Amino acid sequence: MPVGAIEEGVIVNLTRARAVTNGYMSDEEIQWIAQTASRYERIVEVGAWTGRSTLAWLDNTKGNVLVVDEWKGSTEGDLVDILARMGSEWAWREFVYNTRHSSNLEIMKMESTLAAELCREQGRTFQCVFIDASHDYASVKSDIEVWLPLVESGAVICGHDYRLDSIPGVKQAVDELLPDAQTMLPLDHDHSIWFWRKP
Fold this sequence. Notes:
7-stranded mixed β-sheet
């Protein structure tokens, strides 16, 4: 069961995740992801960038991880400047390289809504969905709405950057749709993951 604080004594594998230095997850956050991954076997990550968090999921689950991303940057313009400088395919190439030895990875290189619809048509459900794509209110709200029906009863939906200061859209969407969601503790820049267990 996901908890707000990182659990002591839980052994996780973060070797590959920590080697990815161009990601945006703190060490505490990838520890939380790894511990959560160890409890689930059917996981979805919506938004992966270069794969730092993806590797924490992949290397700590006994099951499979479906990654959904277009690798184009965020709708609010975040990360687009990096792609303009490094090349439009840079993040995708970095992701492929970083995850190249992962046999339990499935990729849907497409928009989140389309991927969720395809999974619904295939009758797929998941034990954990992690949302970390575009961070504007409309995008986060849409991601929660389209993936929540695919989360099994008793399973968890969660995401990154639950902070009012620099990214208000995430908090606004989560508070509106999942008002009893919990967060990592203490809630700050390095502990910004939110989570909600589906009844």
